[in-house]
Amino acid sequence: MTGTGKRHFIKTFGCQMNVYDSERMAEALEMAGYAAADSPDVADLVVLNTCHIREKAAEKVYSELGRLNQIKQARAKGGLRTMIAVAGCVAQAEGREILARAPVVDLVVGPQSYHRLDDLLRRASTERGVIDVDFPEDDKFKHLPVRGAARRAPTAFLTVQEGCDKFCTFCVVPYTRGVEYSRPVREILEEAERLAHAGACELTLLGQNVNAYHGQGDDGEAWSLARLLRRLAEIPTIRRLRYTTSHPRDMGDDLIAVHGEEEKLMPYLHLPFQAGSDRILGAMNRKHTRNEYTELVRRIREARPDIALSTDIIVGFPGETDAEFAQTIELVEEVGFAQAYSFKYSARPGTPAETMDDQVPEDVKADRLRELQALLSAQQAAFNTSCVGRRFDVLFERHGRRPGQLVGRTPYLQAVHADAPDALIGRMIEVEISGAGPNSLEADILRSAESPDLARANG
Ligand code: 5AD
Ligand code: SF4
Fold first, then answer.
1. Whose CA is nearest to atom 6 of ligand 1?
2. Mind listing the pLDDT tens digit for each residue in 255-310?
3. Ligand 1 centroid to residue 282 C-alpha, Å
4. How far is the CA of 54 from the centre of ligand 2 (A)?
5. In this structure, which residue's CA is closest to atom 13 in ligand 1?
6. Could you tell me if the CB of 454 is within 6 A of ligand 2?
């Protein structure tokens, strides 16, 4: 570490892939001598790691840049320079347009170029408006610094796959993140071992299409996600594995089988279906029908009966009629979700759906979203209530809002609050669920799977 005395602040928008990328960028910046700042007001470099998936997400970047402009000017009066970088999917999608619309920006850097951040910053300190939105041949992971042991969190994200070849007609991901790429097995295992060594006991494997993973193993074969999960489960201190996000078409038999056989793989699956009508699914180019989805769910539940399902749903895709939307509601009723994300369709530049006829009016989309979200909230609340009185192992991750309170997650990914001593952070503890809210659970500590004395230590 060179110790330049400079400080960085990274603000992350959007998905978990961005959270992972921000962490890797922070590590790269720390290697280049930047310490982390607590707020943008005291940072010499501010990075916005942005999301382009819906218009609202992309527009947030510009309002944030407005605020940063004021900070930059105030600091300049005190003789301090503030560099502002836009990273992530808005950088990739809009490139030079960002500089035209927001001259406050010094650097635009796409998701495949983070390993060049230090060089780019040096250039941006003398040149106006530096841009790097290439898709380089050699992968960025190879060139990013090794993940540091400074990381101490009990849970960690690990990107194993990036990009998408599915080309759903509403989605910008194939354009902003490029074609599908799977990291080699060895690289993932090394990163997992280092994370485990630094104290992580839960790994969430990430990819825009994570279950399409087919990275090369040392044996020369392409490993499936199922095989990778089984191998990662062999790391003794890794107690829990998760993965997200999956496409129904890539949910192979071997992956379904792992859900029934590998106890470290948590009983939770995020499996977007987007719409309940076959006509809309076809127009979305989803490559699956409604029946294929429900049949898949049946097989997954056969392998792992208690699995909690989550999904993504879009309402108001171009041409969606009331009757077609009703099929989305029916499908939600039929499957039953523990959790879900739902969105109004948002036309994205350059996607096929953007120019489709019959765009649905905003007020119709808003009404549909309200109806859908009422149903999803009721399902989530019912699932949470069904957990009251049950006992689970919870991995405590961090402090809660109240003093003396810790927050962790059940195997089903529900947030759990419990009064517990700090020493339990990073530990897997058996709890009894004492209460349920719409978005989280309350629990009493019973004892630790690792140390039967904990209940006593806890008073
Ligand atoms: N409009 C609304 N929602 C979208 N998503 C992706 N693109 C759009 C869009 N143009 C949603 C999908 C996807 C999730 C990450 O975001 O449901 O699964
Ligand atoms: Fe977008 Fe569809 Fe690819 Fe998911 S599968 S990232 S929704 S194109």
1. 171
2. 999 999 999 999 999 999 999 999 999 999 999 999 999 999 999 999 999 999 99
3. 16
4. 13
5. 312
6. no
* Residue 154 contacts residue 396 (beta carbons within 8 Å): yes
- Nearest ligand (C-alpha, residue 274): 1
Q: Is the CB of 208 under 6 A from ligand 2?
A: yes
**CATH code, 6-132:** 3.40.50.12160
Token match 């402090």: residue?
A: 399
Kindly report the length of the chain: 459
For residue 152, give every residue at least 6 positions away whose Cβ sits within 8 Å of its Cβ, in sequence order, or none: 198, 199, 426
pTM exceeds 0.90: yes
C-alpha distances in angstroms, 242 versus 207, 230, 339, 348? 12, 12, 15, 30
CATH topology of domain 391-457: OB fold (Dihydrolipoamide Acetyltransferase, E2P) (2.40.50)
Smallest CA-to-CA distance from 283 within 243, 336, 324, 342 is with: 324
pLDDT in tens, 185-224: 999 999 999 999 999 999 999 999 999 999 999 999 999 9
Q: Which CATH number fits domain 140-386: 3.10.50.30, 3.80.30.20, 3.40.50.300, 3.20.20.60?
A: 3.80.30.20
Structural domain boundaries in the chain: 6-132, 140-386, 391-457
